[in-house]
Write a structure and sequence with these properties.
Blueprint lengths: L2 E4 L2 E4 L5 H17 L17 E5 L3 E5 L2 E5 L14 H10 L8 E7 L5 E4 L11 E7 L1 E6 L9 E5 L4 E4 L8 E7 L11 E7 L6
Antiparallel strand pairs: 1-2, 2-11, 3-6, 4-5, 6-13, 7-12, 8-11, 8-13, 9-10, 9-12
The chain binds succinic acid (SIN) and fe (ii) ion.
């Protein structure tokens, strides 16, 4: 079931069942063993994000004092990002409606107390491809607005296994995570939440 909750913004609640969530988590654990979660900081100010990040797939999204960008290597290890596991790539193939594979899977880890300020995903070359965003672990209060920071916003609670698709009129809209709800899922041993954000980065030739 896919519900359109705003123009171009669709939610597939419980898209991954329990065993698929466990399988995806196992695959992400392997990714993070090779490409450890690192501490991103804000451009210029150098203020740390409250989430930790890693990536898999050919391109990884990173933020450091120099800015936001995609790059092929982990900022700490210098190693290429691990391949995107099939369990994750498949979600894009099924839900994106786009005829080329995802190039980036950004992994955001939220410990209790972590959040993500309102922002737009706008570092990609091709906005005709959607953003497909997977939730695993503790529930989160996701806020979405419009094309301007001051546009009115609404909130939706995202649970483990839910997948959100930002496409069309919502592709460049502001969104963020206000809080997570500790103890609402037992998927992650130590608690917390993983968000997997799948994106196409380059324009198809
Ligand atoms: C993001 O927009 O980068 C993350 C969204 C989420 O954690 O659900
Ligand atoms: Fe985002």
């Amino acid at each position: 079931m896919i519900n359109e909750i705003a123009d171009g913004l669709a939610l597939a609640p419980g898209y991954l069942d329990q065993s698929q969530q466990i399988a995806a988590l196992e695959d992400i654990r392997k990714v993070v063993a090779a490409a450890p979660l690192y501490q991103p900081v804000m451009p210029r100010s150098g203020r740390p994000f409250s989430v930790k990040m890693s990536n898999c797939g050919p391109l990884g999204w990173i933020s450091d004092k120099a800015g936001y960008r995609y790059q092929t290597a982990h900022p700490d290890t210098g190693q290429p990002w691990p391949d995107m596991p099939g369990s994750i790539a498949r979600i894009w193939d099924d839900l994106s409606g786009y005829d080329a594979p995802a190039e980036c899977c950004l992994i955001n880890f939220y410990a209790s107390g972590a959040k993500m300020g309102l922002h737009r995903d706008e570092n990609e070359e091709d906005f005709s491809a959607p953003v497909v965003s997977v939730s695993l672990g503790d529930e989160a209060l996701f806020r979405f607005g419009g094309s301007e920071r001051k546009s009115p916003t609404k909130s939706v609670r995202l649970a483990s296994g839910d997948v959100l698709i930002m496409a069309g009129a919502s592709r460049l809209n502001y969104h963020g995570v206000d809080k997570i709800y500790p103890g609402t899922s037992s998927l992650l041993r130590g608690g917390g939440r993983l968000n997997l954000t799948l994106r196409r980065v380059t324009r198809q030739v």
